[in-house]
Amino acid sequence: MSKIEIKNLTFGYDNQGTILFDQASLNVDTQWKLGLIGRNGRGKTTLLKILQNQLAYSGQVLQQLEFLYFPQPIKDKKQLTYYALQEISNFEQWEIERELNLLQVNPDILWRAFETLSGGEQTKALLSLLFIEDHYFPLIDEPTNHLDILGRRQVADYLKKKRQGFIVVSHDRIFVDEVVDHVLSIEKSQLELYQGDFSVYEEQKKIRDEFELAQNEKLKKEVSRLKKTAAEKAEWSRSKEQDKYGKASDKGSGAIFDTGFIGARAARTMKRSKTIVNRMEAQLTEKESLLKDVEYIDPLTMNYQPGHHKRLLTVENLTLSYQEENLFQNISFELNHGQRVALAGANGSGKSSIIQFLLNQFDGESKGDLFGPDKLKISCVRQNYEDNHGTLLEFSEDQGLNHQEFLNNLHKLGIEREVFQNRIEQMSMGQRKKVELAKSLAQPAELYVWDEPLNYLDVFNHEQLEKLILSVKPTMLIVEHDQAFLEKIATQVITLTKK
């Protein structure tokens, strides 16, 4: 049984001025199936790079197994998949075919150019390299990208059956729940380990956070009471001081004895009250330092402006096709005010094509009818948003957004304010996705059309969006592979099937 030991790990990016890890220590058994959790920008991918010794850090990382990272870049995507994978790892043909069969993908993909494979096939091909040899410890970064619901189940089954341990990063809560037996949470510069799956982690963290918050509120109330008492005592001591000097001016009153006694008593009271308050404030500071790992998730806002239309869309006997090959069996559905209709189906079944058709952007052939009111205000989250560019101010002005509302949602989604100075095209893909989402939230709309909105977003963002949608109850048409999200927000699910 081997271990990975992290001792006093300290790391921060110089250009960001923040510390991601501060004297963090951890022991990991390499037989654990470990889920790595944390907000975007908190350091999940950075930690994987540190484990691979790709970044300079302070502290120690001790391990006995060699780390193998997913996804590895493919140098030449035009070559056959077999040879593209050989450049990453040496293997026998039967070994890679065995893993592909376990992943429920036809080994024939080895003899096709890597660039011709679907996103799901490319993901499975790269995953198949991770467990060929047992002297590797896999670091699996976002394996569910490009996988539909069926593909996610297949990969989850594959990982569950492996005897080797690994670290996996994924924002799909159901997927993580199915494959891990431990959770490592990155919580504001520290690493916290939980035994169990993601549901256990959520429950334990919720209990811990609620206890800390309750203790904090209790202490704040006590400090407030003590401050009030101290102020009253201070006022009493001041009034007695005034009495002392007043009585000292009264001839023949015996005030010399009285004033000395009153002044000493007032001084003692003042000193004692200050001591009590100082002690309680010190305890409050100490308690607040214990609360540094509580995640405060600010609620998002949505510029939903429902109109008088009861029915926003009617689709009758719709079929879409390319070169006379139908993408799915014809469908009919209605989208009424307040409904949230989700389109489900395997990759390539035509979900995004339906959205493109509704927006008059589909370049294939179509049969069927679409009815809806004129001048319907629609706000979109697109899968492809590389055309977003410029500064955030330029972008919001170009899109006609309320700039402050746009920035507020960006910050609530987890983008630090210093990033606001960057041009959109210079941002990470996760940050650019949040720009696209914040744009949609700020646009005045009667209908929201979102195509895979959760890509690149962490589980905390998922929770924000769930709470927002359930609170506002907007009319939506949505494509998403995250089952947990759809189960919470969708009022109807339409599953597309191949012709």
TrEMBL record:
Q: Does the keyword Nucleotide-binding apply?
A: yes
Q: Which residues form the AAA+ ATPase domain?
A: 30-190, 337-495
Q: Which Pfam families match?
A: ABC_tran
ATP-binding as UniProt keyword: yes
Out of the domains of life, which is the source? Answer: Bacteria
Q: What's an example of a GO molecular-function annotation for this chain?
A: ATP binding
- Keywords, alphabetical: ATP-binding, Nucleotide-binding
Q: Read off the SMART domains from this record.
A: AAA (SM00382)
State the PANTHER family in the record. Answer: ABC TRANSPORTER ATP-BINDING SUBUNIT, DRUG RESISTANCE ABC TRANSPORTER,ATP-BINDING PROTEIN
Query: What's this protein's name?
Result: ABC-F type ribosomal protection protein
Q: In which organism is this protein found?
A: Enterococcus quebecensis
